[in-house]
Amino acid sequence: MSPSTQTSFQIKSRERVADHGEVFTPDWLVNDMLKLVDREVERIDSRFLEPACGEGSFLAPILLRKLATVRRQYSKSPADYEFRAVLALMSIYGVELLVDNVCACRERLLTLWLAEYEQRLKRPPSAECLATVHFVLERNILNGNALSMKKVDASAQDTQEPIIFSEWSAVTGPLIKRRDFRQDELLRDQDARNSLEQAKGELSLEYVPKSPVREFPPTDYRKLPEAES
Ligand SMILES: C[S@@+](CC[C@H](N)C(=O)[O-])C[C@H]1O[C@@H](n2cnc3c(N)ncnc32)[C@H](O)[C@@H]1O
């Protein structure tokens, strides 16, 4: 794994360890764990959620591995490379209680994404593309409580607002379909699916997938921030 993905320490302070269990996972362990899902990590659109993501110990190397796939498959066309690199970023999600970690995680992913992009295309992204990258990072790396599934305030206290994830899916050409889901409903949905699987068909299949809380028309990926308003 590249040393550039590593945070330089595993503990920031004793208080933070005691208050929030904040101990970052070392690279060697992240690496070993990611080997268990090797194939998935390399797929550009396989979705990963790190529920207490800290500064993104897992998300950073996952992003790099996905971008390596983009480089192998789409280097010939700058337009294809850019679109797929944005899709790779869109597939990575994190929830973190402490706002400074959220900022550090977004910054880390942004730095890796930009370095990879500029190395490949020998130029920075357009202002529109960069705005989308920032927008996706803000929507995907969330300041929240992964247990209560609520957003939190600057003091890490729960608010009344539920955590909402955006699902981004490629449609055709440069178009992306965005659908927003509440995390608590997604997990209840997953529980229902699991119990149906365990029941091996003995339950009547009344499983109804959860509906999004918000849905957007397919939009050019460079116009996604504007579609929000
Ligand atoms: C053991 S660290 C792991 C960080 C990162 N996943 C890693 O492997 O390096 C736990 C992280 O979870 C955060 N955290 C603690 N309770 C949380 C909660 N209820 N919801 C979201 N994040 C939480 C802490 O602030 C800390 O950054």
Low-confidence stretches: none
Oligomer: single chain
- Tally of separate domains: 1
Strand order of the largest sheet: 1-2-3-4-5
Architecture overview:
This protein is of the alpha+beta class and 229 residues long. The chain has one domain. 47% of the residues lie in helices and 17% in strands. It has 9 helices and 9 strands. Strands 1-2-3-4-5 form a 5-stranded mixed beta sheet. Strands 6, 7, 8 and 9 form a 4-stranded antiparallel beta sheet that branches. Strand 3 and strand 4 form a beta hairpin. It is globular and about 50 Å long. S-adenosylmethionine binds next to strand 2. The site of S-adenosylmethionine has 19 residues, from strand 2.
Topology (SSEs and partners):
Layout: H1 14-20, H2 27-35, H3 38-42, E1 48-50, H4 59-74, H5 78-90, E2 92-96, H6 99-121, H7 127-140, E3 141-145, E4 150-152, E5 158-162, E6 164-170, E7 175-182, H8 183-198, E8 214-215, E9 219-220, H9 224-227
Parallel strand pairs: 1-2, 2-3
Antiparallel strand pairs: 3-4, 4-5, 6-7, 7-8, 7-9
Helix pairs in contact: 4-5, 4-6, 5-6, 5-7
Bound molecules: S-adenosylmethionine (SAM).
